[in-house]
Amino acid sequence: MNKIFSVYNKLYFHFGPQHWWPVTEKGNFHPTYSGGPKNEKQQLEVCFGSILAQNTSWKNAEKVIVELNKHSLFDVKKIIKIGAKKLAQIIRSSGYHNQKAKKLKNFCDFLLNKYDGKLNLLFKNDIAELRKQLLSVNGIGPETADSIILYAAKKPIFVIDAYAKRIANRLGYKEQRYDELQNLFMENLPNSEKLFNEYHALLVELGKDICKKKPLCGKCPINRYCSYYKSK
Questions:
Q1: For labeling, which of 61, 114, 142, 174 is most exposed (least CB within 10 Å)?
Q2: Which of 176, 163, 172 is nearest to 224 (CA)?
Q3: In which region does residue 206 sit, left (phi positive, over 0), alpha (psi from -120 to 50) or beta (all else)?
Q4: Fold exhibited by the domain 3-19+158-231
Q5: What are the Cα distances from residue 199, in Å, to 95, 134, 137, 183?
Q6: Calpha distance 47→54 (Å, rounded)
Q7: Quick check: 114 and 74 in contact, CB under 8 A?
Q8: Distance of CA 37 to the CA centre of its chain
Q9: The domain 40-152 is classified under which CATH number: 1.10.340.30, 3.30.1030.10, 3.40.50.1110, 1.20.120.1200?
Q10: What is the pLDDT of residue 28?
Q11: Going residue by residue through the chain (232 aa), what tens digit of pLDDT does each one get?
Q12: 83 in helix, strand or coil?
């Protein structure tokens, strides 16, 4: 078994299943970790959440999800119709709220103009075409596009975020570019949407609480695999 897969098994044994991506159940305002989206409204929530989580913590993005739920704004046409300043105020707690308001509007314009506002039509594309389409939207980069593909469309692609990069580099892997790190994981794992989903979520859990900028190596369940820990 290669080290990438061994790390996954150790993290899963230590933390257990993460039930990503958190989505809001009917009648609630707060998203919960219930195994990802089960309908188109929840898929749109994941798409918006992927944009709102840019350059901030999930905790801040989650606050905005609640506000958007309260304003019934998980609706493509409503996002297009609402004024940019008003939308920016509603999503203020996400940080960079003016830019993110524009990004949400850009995504909704794209979805309405090219796919009649229907995610199921967008998600019929294969992964390569879907990624190309998403990256054509101003404000959506590789991490956001891949989050939408993995967590909303439920197609197998590995998401690389700051946690995944930090952990991979501390484990001793030298890859730095997004595509290099993505290939590292995808070439060493079975091509499974559920596995990629769980692994990325586990890396977030590790990076958030243990493998921080100032790591708590003594508490780390994978320190036996870690070049950083061994070099200390």
A1: 174
A2: 172
A3: alpha
A4: Endonuclease Iii, domain 2 (1.10.1670)
A5: 27, 23, 27, 14
A6: 12
A7: no
A8: 13
A9: 1.10.340.30
A10: 95
A11: 699 999 999 999 999 999 999 999 999 999 999 999 999 999 999 999 999 999 998 999 999 999 999 999 999 999 999 999 999 999 999 999 999 999 999 999 999 999 999 999 999 999 999 999 999 999 999 999 999 999 999 999 999 999 999 999 999 999 999 999 999 999 999 999 999 999 999 999 999 999 999 999 999 999 999 999 999 8
A12: coil
Computed from CA positions of residues 188, 193, 198, 203, in that sequence, does the dihedral angle turn out positive or negative? positive
Q: Which residues are 23's β-sheet partners?
A: 32
Cβ atoms 155, 193 nearer than 8 A: yes
Contact 119, 43 (CB under 8 A): yes
Domain residue limits, the chain: 3-19+158-231, 40-152
List, for residues 148-177, the tens digit of each pLDDT value. 999 999 999 999 999 999 999 999 999 999
DSSP state of 56: S
**Helix and strand element counts for the chain (H, E):** 13, 0
Tracing tokens 């990076």 back to the chain, one arrives at: 207
Gap between the Cα atoms of 194 and 204, Å rounded: 16
Alpha-carbon distance of 7 to 228, in angstroms, equals: 15
Q: Return the structure tokens found at 117.
A: 């506002």
| DSSP state letters, 114-130 | HHTT-HHHHTTS-HHHH
For the record, the structure tokens of 89 come out as 């105020």
Distance, in Å, from the CA atom of 30 to the CA atom of 43, rounded to the nearest integer, reads 15
